[in-house]
Design goal:
Blueprint: H1 7-15, H2 19-92, E1 97-101, E2 113-114, E3 119-124, E4 128-129, E5 134-136, E6 141-151, E7 158-164, E8 167-174, E9 182-192, E10 197-202, E11 217-225
Antiparallel strand pairs: 1-3, 1-11, 2-10, 4-5, 5-10, 6-9, 6-11, 7-8, 7-10
Bound molecules: calcium ion.
Calcium ion is lined by residues 151, 174-175, 179-180, 182.
Length: 226
């Protein structure tokens, strides 16, 4: 039969823990501490890695920032070269354009005659000669020409042609009669070699009328050199 615990024995029984339980709890705490330590090590490693990456990025940013003035300088240099190239290209393309006006009547004549338009409206490049009525190409290229004739008399009819080196290209024709005072226009794009001449021709026994109204004109310009 067990001896009933005395008050002292009872107090010892309550205060003395089970040693196995204590050891188990301490072991678990050590495991948790070890796990926390491993986690901390991992976090520290991640922080070091991020700091190293930031340092590398800052270095790259510094290199890029250092290159900005050089890039700006190169951009300005290229812009200047482009402007110079545009100016040289523009200067290389001849500027040829003219418009001339007759201002007085012609015909009828017994033979075909070039029309000499003496009144110059525009003659950039001086390729049109008012003394002869001819345009002479200074450079090979594609040109545009147009002319207008005016029939203001009862008789005879008006016939004018656009001529290239003496060869008829296009013509205009208008009959006199009850519907006189008519205008007619024709035009052509012509490929010219340097030295080719273009002019208009009043055909034999035909007439054109003009006065201060300036009804008869001859115009042309270089579209582009070839
Ligand atoms: Ca008519």
């Amino acid at each position: 039969m067990r001896t009933p615990p005395t008050p002292l024995n009872a107090e010892l029984t309550v205060c003395q823990p089970n040693s196995c339980t204590v050891i188990s709890e301490m072991s678990a705490m050590r495991e948790r501490l070890a796990a926390m330590a491993r986690t901390q090590d991992g976090l520290l490693e991640s922080v070091r890695s991020l700091m190293a990456e930031m340092a590398a990025n800052q270095e790259k940013l510094g290199v890029c920032s250092a290159q900005i003035p050089a890039v700006q300088s190169l951009t300005q240099e290229l812009a200047q070269q482009l402007k110079a190239l545009q100016e040289s290209t523009s200067a290389a393309v001849p500027r040829v354009a003219f418009t001339a006006v007759l201002g007085h009547s012609l015909g009828p004549l017994p033979i075909n005659m070039p029309v000499k338009y003496p009144l110059i409206i525009t003659n950039m490049g001086n390729a049109y000669n008012p003394a002869t009525g001819s345009f002479t190409a200074r450079v090979s290229g594609m040109y545009y020409f147009s002319y207008t004739m005016y029939n203001g008399r009862p008789t005879p009819n008006s016939v004018v042609g656009l001529m290239k080196n003496g060869q008829m290209i296009v013509t205009t024709w208008d009959t006199a009669g009850g519907d006189q005072n008519d205008s007619a226009t024709n035009a052509a794009v012509l490929q010219l070699e340097a030295g080719d001449s273009v002019y208009t021709q009043l055909f034999a026994k035909r007439t054109i009328y003009d006065d201060n109204g300036r009804y008869n004109t001859f115009s042309g310009f270089l579209l582009f050199p070839l």
